[in-house]
Batch of 2 targets.
Target 1
Amino acid sequence: MRAHHLLSTIFALTVVSIAGLTTAAVHPENNSGIAPATAAKLQRIARQNIADNLSLFPDGTDFFRAAPGYPDVYLSDLGLTMTGLPDQFSAAQVKNVIDKFLARTSPAGWIPMALRQDSSVYVYCSGWDRRCAHATGDGAFFLPLLEELYWHKTGTTAQFMGDSRKVKAALDGIPRDTATGCVEVVPGDDWVAWGFEEEPRKTGLDAIGSVMYWRAATAVAHLYSRVKDSANARYFARQANLIQKSLQSQSSLLWNPGAGMYYAASSQNRQIDILASALAVHCGLPTAAQRAAIGQWLVKNYSSITYHGYVLQSPSSWAIVGYIPKKKGEPYGNSPFGAESYQSAYWSVGNQWISEALSVSSPARAAALTNAFANNPDPTMEYSRLMAVRNTAFRRTSSRPLAVRHLPCPIDRQTSAQSPTSLAHLRLSSPPTPHPESRSCCGFRRKTAY
C-alpha cells in the first residue's frame, strides 16, 4: 500500500468539487453532503501530498514522484494527477514532463512508462510483462493528455507541432482490433494495456485500454485540427468514432446489457470492470442510457464493492492472473497474491471517476464515498488490504487454473532500460517474499507501508 500516493491527491481535491458540487446542484437541500471541515482536510492533505512528492531532475527542473519512497516518475500517475488537478501545476511543469518523456522515446516509438530521477528510462513495460513485446499503454495514453493540457494552459500549438510525430507513432503502436477499433490483447501475444490493471491477464478486446485510447485519440484529433493538419485530424477522429460506436452498442462484446456495466475484456477475464465503466462515464463516452445504467449498478452494489472509501476494480477477484512469460507460448508465471489482494483488493486510484458515476444516480452515495475516504487514518494510500474479510457476494466459485494462480512479486529490479527489446527494464530479479500484511508493491511501483 503506497502511502502518500500521488494519485490519491486527485480524489482528495477533485472529488470534493465534482461530487460535492454535483450534489449541491442537483439536490441543494442536501448541501452536498460533505462537511466543510472534511473538504478542507482533504484539500490540505492533497496539497501536502503534492509537495511531499516534489523532486528534481539533474538539470534542476522538477517532477513529482509516485510516492516519497519512490525516486522515479511514472507517466500514468503524474499524467492523471496533472490533468485531474490542472490548477496545481504550471505550464512549464507540464511541458517539462512532456519533453523529458518524449526525449526518451525508443526507436520503435515507445514512450516510457517511467523515468528515473536522472531522466533516463526506467521502464517501457510493466513489471508483470517479462517478454515486453509491446510497450505498456501508459505513455501512449497519457502523453497526449498532457499535450492537450499544455495547449489549454498556453493557447499555443507549437509544442504539439514539434511532438506530433512521436505522439502519433506511440498511438499507432497500440495493438487494436480493426473491426471495432478497440484495444486488443491477442491470445499468446499478451501485453499490459494499463499499469493499474497489470495483474489480470486479459485477452480479446480490452475495455479500459479502449476507453483510454478513445480519450487520447480524441485529444490528438482536436490538436491536429488546431494545427491545420486535416488529414491526421480525420485519421484520429475516425479511430475515436469507431471505438465509441463499438462501445455504445448494446451488442458490444465489452458491454454487459444485463448488468449495465462494461466487461474488462471480451475473452479471458470477461468480468465486470468497475474502473473501466466509471472511466467511460468520466470521459463522456457511453450513451445516456449506458451512463444511467452504470450509475445505477454502482449505487445498487455500493456496499459490496466499497471498503472505507476504497473501491474494487471488479466485483469478483480477477479470474486469471500472472506475469507474462519471457518466452511466447509459455504459461503465465505464478503470483503470491491471494484472490482478494493486490489488484483484487480495494483501490482509490479510480475514485474520482467512480464518484462521478455514482452522482449520476445518487449524489448522496458519491458524497458518502468522499466522506469514507476522508475518514481513513491516512487517505493517501493507493490501495487497501486492511479488511479482515472481503465481501463475498460476487466471489468466484470456479477454481483458478493452476498455470496462472499466483506470481512472485516483481518489485526490486533496478537495472536500466535503454533497449525495449532487452530484459533490462523488467524490474524482475529473484522475486522477494512480500511482507505478509503489506503485499503492496508488486509490479507497478508500490511503496510498502507498515
Target 2
Amino acid sequence: MITFSPGDRIAVLLPVPLFGALDYLTGDDPLAPGDFVRVPLGTRTVTGVVWGAVTDPQGDFTCLPVKESLKLAPLPENTRRFIDWVASYCLAPPGAVLKMAMSVPKALEPGKRPPPRLIPADPLPVGYKVTEARARVLEAARLPQSTADLARTAGVVPSVIRGMANAGALVEIEGVEIEGGKIETGPQPDPNHPGPTLSPGQRAAADSLRARIDAGFAVTLLEGVTGSGKTEVYFEAIAGALAAGRQSLVLLPEIALSAQWLARFEKRFGVPPTVWHSDLGEPERRRAWRAVSRGDAKVVVGARSALFLPFPALGLVVVDEEHDGSYKQDEGVCYHARDMAVVRGHLSGLPVILASATPSLETAANVEAGRYTKLILPSRHGGASLPEVALVDLRRDPPPRQQWISPPLHQAVERCLQAGEQALLFLNRRGYAPLTLCRACGFRLQCPHCTAWLVEHKVGSRLQCHHCGHYTTKPEECPGCQAEESFAACGPGVERVAEEAAMLFPDARIAIMASDLLPGPKAAAELVDRMARREIDLLVGTQIVAKGHHFPLLTLVGVIDADLGLAGGDLRAAERTFQLLSQVAGRAGRAEHPGRVLLQTYQTEAKVLQALATGDAEGFAALEAEDRRAGGWPPYGRLAALIVSGGDAGLVEKTAQQLARIAPRDPSIELLGPAPAPLSLLRGRHRRRMLLKAPKQVNLQAYIRHWLGLTKLHWTIQVQVDIDPYSFL
C-alpha cells in the first residue's frame, strides 16, 4: 500500500466542479490514497480525498500543507476508480462526481455519542410477566432503539422501558467504538433465515445466480413476466453474498414507494436492509453512509445515487426494473445508473443482475451480442395467469363529452366492483388538468420560468409547473382580455379522472396514487397497506402504481389514454409505452382471480398497442430493433447531446451557432442542430440543443473534449454534455 510521508507532494480531489485534483503537501501525519483530509482552498477549508502522488508537478509554486487528516475509513480504491471512470465517460468534472460520493458532509464529522440502543433479552428472565404493554415494547425493540424512541414506537411511557431494562428484559446491544462514540452494529440480515418455497424454475435460476458470487464479473438479465417471482430469485443471490461476507446493493426506480419490497426483504432475511434515497432525513443519511463505509451495512437498497456509496466489500449489484427511465440522471453529472452499475461491477470484478419483465433494447442487444447472459422465468408464480388485454377504440366507443371513461371501461369497472374485486384506472399525468385557458380569448396560463403550461391541481388549489416547481393560484380575471372567471380546465389528470369515477361509482371507495400527493415513504406505504387491506375499491394512479405492487384482489386495469406516451419525437417512445403499459397491466390478476386490462386508444393499429393486445413482446422487440438498426440509432449507434444554456437568449443562440461552426469535421459524426430545445426556457435559462450521431465504434468523448477545447465560453454560458441521452426535452 502506498503511503505518503510528511512533506510529500500529493494530489487531493475536492468535491467541487474542477477538472482534476489539486496539489498539497502531506502534513505531520502520514497519509494514503483514499484518506479524507481537510485542506485550504482560497479563504475556506474544504474536505477532500487523497487521490495519489503528484506525478507531473505543474510549476514551481509553493504547495500548502494538509490541515487535518480525518479519522474515517478511507474511500475504497474501487470507489475511486469508479469516480474516475464516470467522470471520463460522462465528460464531467471528477470533483462533481466525487461530490456524489460525499453527499452527506455531516457523515465526515466526528459523531456525538448516541443514546444506548435496546433489544429484547434472549431468553427473557425466568418468570418475567409479559403484559400487553410490555409485549408491544418487545415487538418494537426488534429494531434497536433508544429509550425515548422505543417508548414512542410502542406507545408507553419511558419508565416502562427503564423498568424492563432494570429487570433484564431489555439489553443494550453490542457495538464498536468510533471516535469515542458508540455506534451500534445492530442485527444483520440472515442468509439462512427461512424464505418462501421456490418453484423448480425459480430454484434453478436462483442457484445459477448464487453460483456467480465471488466468481468474477458477469452480467445476467433476469427476465420474467410480471408476478413471476424475480425478486425472490435474486434474494437468493443476496443470500449468497451475505454468506460470503460481501455487501450487496439493490437499485430500485422508486425506492421511496417500495414498502412491499422492503416487507418482502424483511420476511426473507429477518431484518430490514439499509435504505438510501433523497427523502431520508440527514441523521438517517449520515448513519447509512457511515454504516456502508464501515462495512456494517450488508445490504443497501437505494435510488440511483446509492451507486456512489463507499462500499469496502461490495460483492453484488442488482438493478431491478432495469428498463425504467428514472435510472437516467439528466442534470448535473448526466449518467444512466443501469449502465454505471455494470461498470461498477466490471471495475470491482463482481456479478451484476439486471431484472425486468420488459428489458430495455440496450440490455437485449447486449444479450444478443453475448456480453450478458439471460435467465428466464416464463410464468407467474403459484399458477396465476397473465391478464387478458383488450383495446377500446375511442373512435367507435367514445366517452361522453367532457368525460374520459368510455362505456366499455365504465361497464367493466362496474362489474368488477359488483364482484367485490378491486380496479385500477391509470393515467400517467399528475394533477387535475394539464392546461388551463381562457374561454373568451384563448389565453393559456404558462410558467414564467419555463416553456411549459401550468398544471391545475384541485388538491391544494394551485397551478404548478412540473419542471421548476413554480406555483400560483388561478387568477380571478384573464391577463389577456380581463374577462372574469373565464378559465377552463382542458384535458384530464388523475385528479379529474378520480372526480369522474366518484360520479360514476358513488359507492366505491376511491383513492389517488400520484407522487405529488404522497408527501413521503410513510404516506406511500399507508396507501399501499390500505389497498392490500381492501379499504380501497378503485385506485386512480400515475406511473408509480406500476412499480412492483402486489394486490391480490386487483383484477381490472383500465388505461385512460394509452396513446399518451407515443406523441413527440422521442426515439424510445414506443419502447417506453410498451414497458410502462406492460408493467401497469401486470398489476391485474396476480393471485387466484384472473385479470383483465382495457387500453383506451385512438390508434388501435399502432404496433406497440397491437403487441400489448396479442402479448407478442418478442415480436415488438424485434420490430423496434430492426427500426433502430436501420437508422443507426441506439443501441446500434451512439448519441450525445450538448445543451447550451444561459440567461441571455441572444448570447445563448450566438454561442450555439459559434460552436456549430467550429465543430471539427468528421465524416463518421453527424451534427444535428443547433435548435431550440422543446423546453427552450427552463428555470429561467434559455436553451439550445445539438445532437451528435455516430456509429458505435466512434469515441464521441474524445471528439467532444477536443471540440469544446477550441473555444472559450462567456462566463454566463453553460454547456452541458449528455452522453447517451434519454430525454430530448
